[in-house]
TrEMBL record:
<dbReference type="Pfam" id="PF03221">
    <property type="entry name" value="HTH_Tnp_Tc5"/>
</dbReference>
<dbReference type="InterPro" id="IPR006600">
    <property type="entry name" value="HTH_CenpB_DNA-bd_dom"/>
</dbReference>
<dbReference type="InterPro" id="IPR050863">
    <property type="entry name" value="CenT-Element_Derived"/>
</dbReference>
<dbReference type="Pfam" id="PF03184">
    <property type="entry name" value="DDE_1"/>
</dbReference>
<keyword id="KW-0539">Nucleus</keyword>
<dbReference type="GO" id="GO:0005634">
    <property type="term" value="C:nucleus"/>
</dbReference>
<dbReference type="InterPro" id="IPR007889">
    <property type="entry name" value="HTH_Psq"/>
</dbReference>
<keyword id="KW-0238">DNA-binding</keyword>
<dbReference type="InterPro" id="IPR011011">
    <property type="entry name" value="Znf_FYVE_PHD"/>
</dbReference>
<dbReference type="GO" id="GO:0003677">
    <property type="term" value="F:DNA binding"/>
</dbReference>
<dbReference type="InterPro" id="IPR009057">
    <property type="entry name" value="Homeodomain-like_sf"/>
</dbReference>
<dbReference type="Pfam" id="PF05225">
    <property type="entry name" value="HTH_psq"/>
</dbReference>
<dbReference type="InterPro" id="IPR004875">
    <property type="entry name" value="DDE_SF_endonuclease_dom"/>
</dbReference>
<feature type="domain" description="HTH CENPB-type">
    <location>
        <begin position="65"/>
        <end position="142"/>
    </location>
</feature>
<protein>
    <recommendedName>
        <fullName>HTH CENPB-type domain-containing protein</fullName>
    </recommendedName>
</protein>
<dbReference type="InterPro" id="IPR036397">
    <property type="entry name" value="RNaseH_sf"/>
</dbReference>
Amino acid sequence: MMQSAKVMPRNYKRKTATRYSLEDLKKAIDDVKTKKLTIGKAAETYNVPKTTIFDHLKKTVVKLPRTGRKPLFTDKQETELVDYIIKCSKLYYGLTIKKIRQIAYQYAQKNKLTHNFDQVKQVAGKDWYYNFMKRHPSLSLRTPEATSLNRITAFNETEVGVFYSNLKTIQDQHHIQPDKIFNVDETGISTVQRNQKIVAVRGQKQVGKATSAERGCTTTVVCAFSAGGQYIPPFFIFKRKRMNPLLLKGSNPNMVGAVSDSGWINESLFVDWLHHFISYAKPSKEDPVLLILDNHESHISLDAYSLCREHGIIMLTLPPHTSHRLQPLDLTYFGPIKTAYNQECENHMADRFGQPITQYDIVELFTNAFNRCSNLQKAASGFRSAGIYPLRPIEFDTIEPNLSQSNALTIMNPSQTIDTITQLTNNQETEVQQVSNADTTAVTQVHSVEDFNNQGSDTVLADSFSENLHEVHLSDIIELPVIPPKVSKRNIRKRKSTILTSTPIKEQLEEKENRKKTKAEESKEKQKKIINKESQIKRLKCSDKGPLKEVKRVLKNFNNIKEFNDPSQNTKKKGNKRNEDFFCIFCEDKYIDPPVEDWIMCYVCGKWAHENCTDGQSTSA
């Protein structure tokens, strides 16, 4: 019978240990270099293999040799792979485990390395991946945060530099202290919580947990804090038509609520929030306050500008699509408080079986999370992480690699390599000796230890150049991801970081306000026209005798129209004589059959007239 192949266990534990220590190895090498002992005597004295002593004579750093199977790639090749993984993660195109295994397979194939990778799936093994991660502890498996292409491209040195330049200008003029530097932003909370992991039966396919509904109702919360740790009481915006005091049940006494049709903030509600902000921040023209906010349309209005100028509030906007890196609230506050809010929702659902979370419960649950999470450390850390206070602009060289520059994975020119090798071998031909094996006979070919030390570096250099001659670099196999510049067909004015309370902005806001008024007037005129048309149609359909069908006004062919349209046929219903003559009630001309002109009948009195004689008059009045 055939014996089944033995599979090496994944967590293999070595059964034997190294017979010598690092100290013994160092002493043996020192004795050989100082000519106290030969390599053979040193091996016997310190119980170190002769080949190990011989190998370490040409190394500057002495360390214990690796045990177990040797890695497939060299240290240099693995360093290239690590650099590529790190650069891809910084470019927002990080590699998954499967992708790294595919790249490792391609790398081994191109360099013609002997490996036992899966030839069918063309990927490296899982054991290789786990050992690779152990050898490089600087790498770890992370869950990435979804980042849109707009955020990736907008966060650049030029746009961010404008923001820090505006911030420096404000600080140079006003010297604002940290307790007067505020950041404001909105976030949404839902009546449906995001559940945490629970303990359940192992192997069960689906595990559920109760929530209020399939889709929740979103409520906007406007939050603000200062670099000094002061928190402005939250401002809630509910998706409703009318405000109910019960919505603020369980809140702090200084919290405020409002309503909007969409549940989101608008220009008028932002002005209301500014009044709320002024009552707690206490700004003035003598002691101004800096308010940092994003470029949302609701924040930019003439009313907000006038209110801020009147009370000494300086509004500075962030560059578009950069709040994930420059907004203090997004950096250190919204994450923890949403986690705490979800925990409060879970506790609420667990304590009240069968009762859903409604709008009347949101404020109380959020207040508990707000009181627990709001502290000085989060506020100060948010401004420090964004580089706002203390003012420390983000250095892009240490964060994002410059794609315009050459890659860090340098590629050696093959022609230069060959020239260097030939020149080196010609100059050192008499000195360099090939070491074929590590036994005693190979050692005797070196005349002295000093000669070996002088020749060792040249031998290693020549061997490395010969290896590089046939080596395929990782940059030759796969390139770094590069996002092409976005080309827009529409001529859209690009927004930048601006000081909203500066004088040039006032003119733009006035123009914007005038355009809004003009647009509102045009919409009112259109609405009036629509209402007038609807009223005319209603008048035509209704009369004193009750609702009638729409009367046909143009009678072009009397022969094809039946008794309602034919005056002679219409007399039969009224019992008049058949040969009765008909006259126009305006010009008193007699009806002639067939008619020369178009005639119409008044549906009130039943008499006839020329259509031209009526001049578009209505009988409904």
